[in-house]
Amino acid sequence: MKIDSGSTAWMLTSTALVLLMTPGLAFFYGGMSRAKSVLNMMMMSFVSIAVVGMAWVVYGYSLTFGDGGGLSSFIGGFGDWGLVGLENAATADDGTGIPQLVFVAFQATFAIITVALISGAVADRAKFGAWVVFTLVWATLVYFPIAHWVWWSDGQDGGKSGWLFHLGALDFAGGTVVHINAGVAALALVLVLGKRKGWPKEPMRPHNLPFVLLGAGLLWFGWFGFNAGSALSAGSTAAVAFINTLVATCAAAFAWIVVEKLRDGASTTLGIASGVVAGLVAITPACAFVTPLGAIVLGLVAGAVCAFAVGLKYKLGYDDSLDVVGVHMVGGIVGALLIGFLATTAVNDAGADGLFAGGGFALLGKQAVAVLATLAYSFVVTYVIAKVIDLVMGFRISEDDEAAGIDSTAHAETAYDFGTIRAGIGSGATAAAPAPAVPAKKVEAKG
């Protein structure tokens, strides 16, 4: 098939947009964390880019979008390891009109941010080295298989596909693969590492709310590539996903601050930023399957439900530091299940009709199976991975290091220097001496 230059340009742009989401997440999480651990929090996102990006090229793409032979319903194979043979591929990927390597790069950014999302749950207390090992093992054993289940097909009528794809469960851009997967993995990791020292008695408020708002804005910006880019072309499906990504997020942000106002008496900047992310999460699986009015309904429900869900950690006693469970797991579940009610083939004939479009409960049942399968597999395997890492190398920093701040103990850096500013000229220059005090002059009164 001839390469479509317009769609290729859109997909290259979308890939860059989705990659930007991970630095955006770093700002979002960094602002929500305490000042003594902000650098570590941001490093956990950036190292996810480094580790998962390499793993994706070496074998991740092949395991996710390759043919696994007799196991192809559950996992791909190693036929495309290292992208050997794809470097100068002149054919388009799956009839979409884009080069294969563009698709490879686009999907790499999804794997990267899914791993990075988990990090917010264990702020302030995870060993950096253990986190690096976790990113590689988790991507290999959890993300690659689930993405294969949901998104892989050989493109042939009656051919091979992942088992959830074959079932007919709908997930346009990653409600199950990315958000439910990361959210429930975060819960498993929290249960292994335990609570932060002093939580929940001591206040652990966000140290930089402007960072949080900046991060939310970057995430929203990049999310247009995340959702509309998943159309793999610059056409009507991308347009539907684009407008739904806009309007559902607006609705969720509004719903969150309304809940805050009614419950707490004030609408907060942290609340509206969290509502933005909740809306983005919930619309992700549904963005190409619902109408814009359906997207508003979905956003309103997701914003309100997630605003209440983030408080469950205090009632149930799990220390999800930055609300990954309450926003990503819960928001992902809301979005995936509401497809069963709101989806309509009037928007996208590649989808299915939900309950409100006359399709009955069939689609809702398929969505529920996809949600439950993702929850069960990701939780169990993540818990085992975290336990093994904890036994082998320890996953949690010491109480002394936690009290001192993980930035200084793990990275020998601090984000903010509030001490005396020192400067020198040339190599080995000594710090400038403080200026001598100037005695105050006596001021005589004049009559």
UniProtKB/TrEMBL annotation:
Membrane topology category: Multi-pass membrane protein
Domain called Ammonium transporter AmtB-like: residue spans: 9-416
This protein's GO CC annotations: plasma membrane
Transmembrane regions listed in the UniProt entry: 12-31, 38-59, 101-123, 130-152, 172-194, 206-226, 238-259, 266-283, 289-312, 324-347, 367-386
Keywords, in A-Z order: Ammonia transport, Cell membrane, Membrane, Transmembrane, Transmembrane helix, Transport
Pfam families per UniProt: Ammonium_transp
Location(s), subcellular: Cell membrane
Membrane found in the keyword field: yes
InterPro entries from the UniProt entry: Ammonium/urea_transptr (IPR029020), Ammonium_transpt (IPR001905), Ammonium_transpt_CS (IPR018047), NH4_transpt_AmtB-like_dom (IPR024041), RhesusRHD (IPR002229)
A molecular function GO annotation: ammonium channel activity
Top-level division of the source organism's lineage: Bacteria
NCBIfam families: amt
Family: Belongs to the ammonia transporter channel (TC 1.A.11.2) family.
PANTHER family, sorted: AMMONIUM TRANSPORTER MEP2
Subunit structure: Homotrimer.
Function description: Involved in the uptake of ammonium/ammonia (NH(4)(+)/NH(3)).
Name of the featured protein: Ammonium transporter
UniProt organism field: Actinomadura coerulea
Lineage: Bacteria, Bacillati, Actinomycetota, Actinomycetes, Streptosporangiales
